[in-house]
Write a structure and sequence with these properties.
Layout: H1 14-22, H2 31-38, H3 46-49, E1 53-54, E2 61-64, E3 73-79, E4 86-93, H4 95-98, H5 104-112, E5 116-118, E6 121-123, H6 128-134, E7 142-152, E8 158-169, E9 172-175, H7 176-185, H8 196-216, E10 225-230, E11 236-242, H9 246-269, E12 275-277, H10 283-295, H11 308-318, H12 324-333, E13 339-341, H13 365-378, H14 398-401, H15 406-439, E14 446-455, E15 458-463, E16 468-473, E17 482-485, E18 490-493, E19 499-501, E20 505-514, E21 519-524
Parallel strand pairs: 1-8, 2-9, 16-21
Antiparallel strand pairs: 3-4, 4-7, 5-6, 7-8, 10-11, 12-13, 14-15, 14-20, 15-16, 17-18, 18-19, 20-21
Helix pairs in contact: 1-15, 8-9, 10-12
């Protein structure tokens, strides 16, 4: 039966409506959730500010993208006298103050698990009155925050930290571009004069933290992200690369410090909680990577158990090569996906013994759980040097704030990992649709491309300067029968011995775009370099053509 009519399949935003339903994403707010969110009003109540550390005189700032609508983290830094390092404050919106355990807001946030970010549309984990209102650290208004205050030594190591509840007042809403212009180009007009000194101090701290990261041996992948620019009627005008500057990296390092402290807090107090776990690569994936690298005259150290430093050394070794991004892609494929779980197995990529998420409770449920764990200790009568309590704040039973045992945390970790994957899959589907729609009007056009993946059924080719990937099916590789050499990531001609290898440049023609299946079909313009005359092609067995597995990615 017909349950719903969505409208014109080519209508603006229809790709998102389809993704919401095909991935079973919760997107409509139950009435009781909206009513519960509305009860808090538009401003922080005076009674909620009591019994908190007052940081309103500090020049905390938020630094985000130009199109950001919610600001859940603010930072402040000052030098400690006598060159003993820095005092770093990372203030995070106090979502747990508003979202009580078992409330309608809590149940809906758990169901959603994470905010979902589509091009020009967000499906938030919390209603906008909270995510863009009371829990957004907007400038020049009072906001409640959970603060991680850290002492960072001259060599970039956190020597001391504690958490506390605070009331803050952000001094400025800055963007990455503004801070980049101020720090890298000396543009004093880009940033308000009031925050010049704390921003410069943050930059000095960042430079110290980067050196510590290098000494630690963390893997520093530089992935190329893109942004879709829309024209009229929400049609793609162009796809442009997103360039990361030092402002992006500055905030990233500050958030890493706070997240490591949160994981250390869980570990020190032996609280059941969710760690962000990234295990090392498995042997079979390592073997495939090493075989591929061997063809290029490269190697990965560490034997069966390489350290992150071995990966980083390989990245640096390959950095000047024209195929560096392909090598990095193969390295990424050799690694496991990070998950949430209560058993701490460390974070391989970042090279941390313990890592957890604390910095985004507006958009991630695991972060909200972390804030509850912190509050359960802050408001308990138990003395703990890792937290700071305000005189007369009162106490609550731990079970009222953090009623979780290990079994419950196992289930929460599995659920949060699932919702994260669900959000990623839905976002990929939408972006794939938009890219197919963009190319639909360019059938017949010729492009320069790079082979980004090799399979038994063909080559995936990324179109240069277009940032869209399509398939050259093996049946379009004329005049020979091609074998798939998985170990070396290439297709090899049976008679000609011609090769199509991962990372090779190739000229292609766009021959077909299938919007329904998100498939982009290409064909090569020329034979491979060491081709020559081809013998007649071996007849293919009749059967259904294999479908794409990476369309529009």
């Amino acid at each position: 039966k017909v349950t719903e009519v969505l409208g014109d399949p080519m209508g603006p935003g229809m790709e998102i409506e389809i993704a919401l339903r095909s991935h079973d994403l919760p997107w409509q707010w139950p009435e009781e959730v909206l009513e519960e969110a509305a009860q808090f009003g538009d401003a922080v109540r005076d009674s909620d500010k009591n019994k908190r550390v007052d940081l309103r005189e500090l020049d905390l700032v938020t630094i985000d993208g130009e199109d950001a609508r919610d600001f859940d983290d603010a930072v402040y830094c000052e030098r400690i006298k006598l060159g003993r390092g820095w005092r770093l404050l990372v203030a995070i919106a106090d979502v747990s103050h508003y979202v009580a355990v078992g409330s309608a807001l809590d149940q809906e946030a758990y169901t959603r698990g994470t905010s979902v970010y589509f091009p020009e549309r967000v499906i938030p984990m919390l209603p906008e009155s909270l995510s863009n209102g009371l829990c957004s650290l907007n400038p020049d208004v009072d906001r409640l925050a959970m603060v991680c205050e850290m002492t960072v030594g001259p060599k970039g190591k956190v020597s001391d930290y504690h958490f506390y509840e605070a009331v803050i007042r952000s001094s400025a809403r800055l963007t990455y571009n503004q801070v980049g212009q101020f720090l890298e180009q000396g543009d004093k007009e880009a940033v308000p004069a009031r925050v010049h000194k704390p921003v410069r101090t943050l930059y000095k701290l960042y430079q110290c933290l980067r050196k510590a990261r290098e000494r630690r041996g963390a893997i520093d992948f530089e992935t190329e992200e893109t942004r879709i620019v829309f024209g009229e009627d929400r049609k793609i005008e162009k796809i442009v690369p997103v360039l990361r500057n030092d402002a992006h990296k500055l905030i990233e390092e500050c958030m890493l410090c706070a997240n490591v402290c949160a994981a250390s807090f869980l570990d020190a107090l032996e609280l059941p909680g969710l760690y962000r776990v990234h295990e090392g690569p498995r042997i079979e994936k390592l073997e495939n990577l090493r075989t591929y690298l061997g063809e290029l005259g490269l190697s990965l150290g560490g034997g069966d158990k390489p350290e992150p430093g071995h990966y980083q050394a390989l990245l640096e070794q390959a950095a000047s090569r024209p195929d560096a991004h392909i090598i990095q892609t193969m390295m990424l494929r050799s690694m496991n996906q990070a998950v949430y779980q209560p058993e701490n197995l460390g974070h391989f990529g970042l090279h941390y013994e313990a890592y957890a998420h604390f910095t985004s409770p507006i958009r991630r449920y695991p972060d909200l759980l972390m804030h509850r764990a912190l509050r359960s200790v802050i408001r308990s009568s138990k003395k703990c040097k890792l937290v700071q309590r305000v005189e007369g704040a009162g106490t609550l039973k731990k079970a009222e704030i953090y009623p979780y045992d290990m079994a419950r945390m196992v289930a929460l970790g599995e659920h949060c990992s699932m919702t994260e994957r669900r959000a990623d899959d839905a976002t990929r589907d939408v972006v794939a649709w938009l890219k197919c729609e963009y190319l639909h009007e360019h059938v017949g056009a010729e492009y320069q491309g790079v082979i980004s993946a090799v399979t038994s059924f063909g080559l995936f080719v990324e179109l240069v300067d277009v940032y869209i990937e399509g398939l050259v099916h093996v049946s379009t590789l004329r005049s020979d029968y091609y074998h798939f050499d998985a170990a070396h990531q290439r297709l090899v001609g049976e008679n000609s011995r011609a090769k199509y290898c991962l990372g090779d440049s190739i000229e292609v023609r766009l021959v077909r775009v299938d919007l329904d299946d998100r498939k982009i079909d290409l064909e090569p313009l020329d034979a491979p370099a060491d081709g020559g005359e081809r013998p007649p092609r071996r007849p293919r067995k009749k059967g259904k053509r294999q479908g794409h597995k990476r369309q529009g990615s």
